[in-house]
Specification:
The protein is α/β, with parallel strands linked by helices. Helix content is 42%, strand content 11%. It is built from 12 helices and 6 strands. It has a 6-stranded parallel beta sheet with strand order 3-2-4-1-5-6. It starts with 9 loop residues before the first helix and ends in a 30-residue tail after the last helix.
Length: 313
């Protein structure tokens, strides 16, 4: 709140208000006390609820401060499929500094690119590596139907760590997230296959974060960056020691979720309809019935989930 002197001329008062407002806007979001972790060879995981504009604004400001201070990490994005890495490099050669050209050439469908274009622009502005970090939807479907072998050969499975045995508690926790993330509408028999896809996505993203001596940032849903279930579990012990995971959580996030991150930024809940209610109304589905085709959800699942959106799965 701006405090004005008494008996000030209205025109002068308006000028002071405008100056104060512009100064406040220019200052941007207040730096977080843990921002010193964004330096050197750090592996920084920045979560999100995909449709929360305030979270995107805060993350962008955070990264701009870190890059402005001299950090030059690679920027890896869940929103870009790994098959498009060569396209990204070609687009940057063809039209250096043109973020829209990068997106025209390499962007995956199903994402709101107005929210993510600023991060591509930031990578180009500071001339840092831009990494396509995610498993494609097409490969995800193949894994659901036919398993890992439909996408990865034996050597790739070993390199990603997907040849390991998943512990029962990890499997159960991931299946619980799958169930909640699909409005409790999937039959339980489908959970293992869906969890397999989530494991594959996390393993692929983890692989994209390896080998960056100047540090790397992953922009992904909160479900991917959480330390107990997500990408960190697919990294080596030495790489995990470099990880700093930040959850961007909405008001009303599940109790205890904050413990899955090294730091948490809380924001207001984005305005959105309830897709679970809309799904039931539109399709007449009850719990545990099969699902129709639907758009990408906030975590890459088949159904968007408002009830679980605060987890950013």
């Amino acid at each position: 709140m701006i405090s004005l002197p008494r008996n000030l001329h209205p025109t002068a008062a308006l000028s002071l208000v405008l100056v104060g407002t512009l100064t406040a806007c220019a200052s941007g979001p207040r730096p977080e006390p843990w921002e010193q972790r964004l330096r050197g060879d750090a592996i920084v995981l920045l979560g999100e609820v995909h449709d929360n504009a305030e979270q995107h604004r805060l993350r962008l400001a955070l990264l701009r401060r870190a890059l402005g201070a001299g950090w030059r990490p690679a920027i890896a994005m869940e929103q870009l499929d790994r098959e498009r890495q060569a396209d990204i490099e070609r687009a940057r050669r063809e039209q250096p500094g043109d973020a829209q050209h990068v997106l025209d050439v390499a962007a995956a469908n199903g994402w709101s690119w107005d929210s993510y274009r600023p991060f591509v622009e930031l990578a180009l502005e500071f001339d840092v590596e831009l990494i396509a970090a995610n498993l494609s939807s097409a490969d995800a479907k193949r894994i659901v139907v036919s398993g890992y072998a439909a996408v990865f050969d034996v050597a790739s499975l070993a390199a990603l760590g997907l040849d390991r045995t998943i512990s029962p508690d990890w499997q159960a926790a991931q299946e619980s997230e799958i169930d909640a993330g699909h409005c409790h509408a999937l039959p339980s028999s489908s959970w293992p296959a869906m969890a397999r896809v989530q494991f594959a996505r996390d393993a692929v993203m983890a692989a994209a974060l390896r080998g960056h001596a100047s540090g790397v940032v992953l922009l992904a849903g909160n479900g991917h960056v959480r330390g107990d279930l997500g990408v960190p579990r697919w990294l080596s012990a030495s790489d995990r020691a470099r990880v700093f995971a930040v959850g961007f959580l909405e008001e009303g996030a599940p109790k205890g979720l904050a413990a899955a991150f090294d730091a948490v930024v809380h924001t207001a809940r984005a305005e959105r309809s309830d897709p679970c209610a809309a799904l039931e109304s539109r399709n007449g589905l009850s719990k545990r019935q099969g699902l129709p085709a639907s758009p990408r959800s906030r975590g890459g699942f088949a159904i968007a989930l408002e009830a679980h959106a605060s987890a950013g799965i």
